[in-house]
Amino acid sequence: MKKMLLNALKKALLKIPHQIYFETVGGRKKGKVPGLGSGDSLYFAPSRRGGSSSSSYTSSIYSQMSTRLEETQQQLTQKSIELETTKNQTLKAMENDLLLRQSEREEREAERLEHQREIERERQERERERREREEHAAQMKKAMESYERMFSQCTGFPFSQSQDPRDPTGGGTPLC
């Protein structure tokens, strides 16, 4: 049997080891596969009556189950690959969404900071204008006090000013 198996492998024939055994022992003899006794139905399908049992081979339950298992494993592998692909796509989408939200957050924060800077600039401008007004008022007060001193010194001079006819009555009195 090993020799047939090696020959089949050398010739690259794809035969199931059970089929090679079945052919090596010459098929069923008296309804049984030599070397397996009554357990042959676990590996080979029961022979049909009336036909030549030594030349036919039907996959055993074991072979059928092995084939089904391999198919199921392939399906599971395919589903696993699909699931992994879906998982990666979902993670990528979540990552992109997270980056977008973070970018939007940073943009809102930058806008908020710019707004605060603008408010601060406006406050500083109002404060500068207030100081200028106070300084101007102080200068005006100083000038008024200076004029008051100058006018207070003019009271002793004989100033005569004629009244302007356009002035209302009672007005136009000399300043000094």
TrEMBL record:
Source organism of the structure: Spinacia oleracea (Spinach)
Biased composition annotated in UniProt, kind: Basic and acidic residues: 102-148
Biased segments, Polar residues type: 152-163
Residue stretches of biased makeup (Low complexity): 47-59
Name of this protein: Uncharacterized protein
Residues covered by region (Disordered): 28-59, 100-176
